[in-house]
Amino acid sequence: MRLLRSTDLALRVLMRLAVAGESRPTTREVAADMDVPYTHAAKVVAELQHQGLVDARRGRGGGLSLSAKGRTASVGGVVRAFEGDGDVVDCEGGASPCPLSSACRLRGALRRAQEAFYASLDPLTVADMVAAPTGPLLLEIGRAS
User: Radius of gyration of the chain from Cα atoms?
Assistant: First the structure.
């Protein structure tokens, strides 16, 4: 299974903010730290804010911070929110639906594999993901830019 770029970026933004301490980086600074286009980062940050995981303030003294909910957020929950709960394969879509869809066992097996993937991420929190050695490395990335 391959994550969408927005899902990957959302997780990295949450991790970056988890180690920010009292500093409040801007979306532009986070985009530069993560080496992604500002517009892409802005969309992801807006969605994280909508989910209540990130607090964003504009203007002088503004910036981004991780909310309490964001710090304890389940990585599996974040991935589900960004990936959606659609099937791994699209058996019904397109111009020609799969002729095996009414008797296919693969679709169910792939669904179970997808749920196992999410379930393995559910116990992990954003705070877990920034434990050493990751957190200190994230701090270095922020200083290097």
Answer: 18
Q: What share of the chain is helix, strand, coil (3-state, %, to 5)?
A: 55, 5, 40
The dihedral sign for the CA sequence 71, 72, 74, 77: negative
Please name the helix (run of DSSP H) or strand (run of DSSP E) that holds residue 63, with its range, or none. Answer: strand 63-66
36 sits in the region (left: phi over 0; alpha: psi -120 to 50; else beta) called: beta
The span from the CA of 55 to the CA of 49, in Å, is 6
Q: Centre a 10 Å sphere on the Cβ of residue 89 and count the other Cβ atoms it contains.
A: 14
Q: In 3D, which of 139, 144, 79, 90 has the Cα closest to residue 115?
A: 79
- pLDDT tens digit string along 16-42? 999 888 889 999 999 998 899 999 999
| Token pair belonging to 13 | 């933004």
pTM over 0.70: yes
Give yes or no for a contact between 123 and 74, defined as CB atoms under 8 angstroms apart: yes
